[in-house]
Structures are given as structure tokens and as C-alpha cells.
Write a structure and sequence with these properties.
120 residues; 2 helices; 4 strands; globular
């Protein structure tokens, strides 16, 4: 069975991205730009009031990128990516991303820690 992007099967599409060894990898700067744009829309603040306070390379425990939704299944594989924290006025927003460029805002209380550095 050949994996094809856009097949309509989320698991197959998601796995395909990680099989592409770096070909689709987004650089951290482009992910940070997208995350800042999302944070600006989310909190409706002037972009000057937003700043990235922490941006780190991590390894997520599975395809949920450390932000699992209840009653949803995820690929059980290690995922290289990033954890990005944005200060937006008084709010601290947590974003999780894969090295392939997918990212998401992780609401408070749903975030899971990535693997410790010594376990990778």
C-alpha cells in the first residue's frame, strides 16, 4: 500500500509527513511567526504586546503533540517538535508544534510534558 498525501485518511496523511525525512520540515522561525499571528488574533492585542518567552526543541510522546483531546486516538510514535510559549499581555499561551510544521494552541490544563532530555 502506497501512502499518498491528501488521501482523506488523517492517520495515513499524518504518518506520511513524518516519513518524509526533513523534506517537509518547517523551520522554527516560520512556526514562531504563525504562532504569534494566532496569538494576536486569539487575545486581540497589538502585536507589540506579544513576545515569545520560551521556544525549545522537544520530543513529543505521540501524535497529539502533547495536547491530547479527549476521546481521540493519536499515532503512537515519538514526534520531534517544539514547545513555544507566548506572553500576550497578562496571558501566557502554550503552543506545541511538530518539526514538520503542524502547530496548535494547547489550552490550559490539557498540556502534557514532552520526553525528558535524557530519555530521547
Amino acid at each position: 500500500m502506497m501512502l499518498q498525501p491528501g488521501s482523506g485518511n488523517w492517520l495515513m496523511d499524518y504518518s506520511f509527513i513524518f516519513l518524509m525525512t526533513g523534506a517537509l520540515a518547517a523551520n522554527l522561525a516560520s512556526i514562531e511567526r504563525a504562532v504569534l499571528a494566532d496569538a494576536q488574533q486569539r487575545v486581540q492585542l497589538d502585536p507589540a504586546q506579544l513576545s515569545i518567552v520560551r521556544s525549545e526543541a522537544v520530543t513529543w510522546r505521540d501524535g497529539s503533540l502533547g495536547c491530547p483531546e479527549p476521546d481521540r486516538l493519536y499515532p503512537q510514535m515519538l514526534v520531534r517538535g517544539y514547545r513555544i510559549r507566548v506572553q500576550a499581555g497578562a496571558a501566557l499561551l502554550d503552543y506545541h508544534a511538530s518539526a514538520a510544521g503542524q502547530w496548535l494552541w494547547c489550552p490550559p490544563g490539557r498540556a502534557r510534558e514532552p520526553l525528558p532530555d535524557d530519555a530521547k
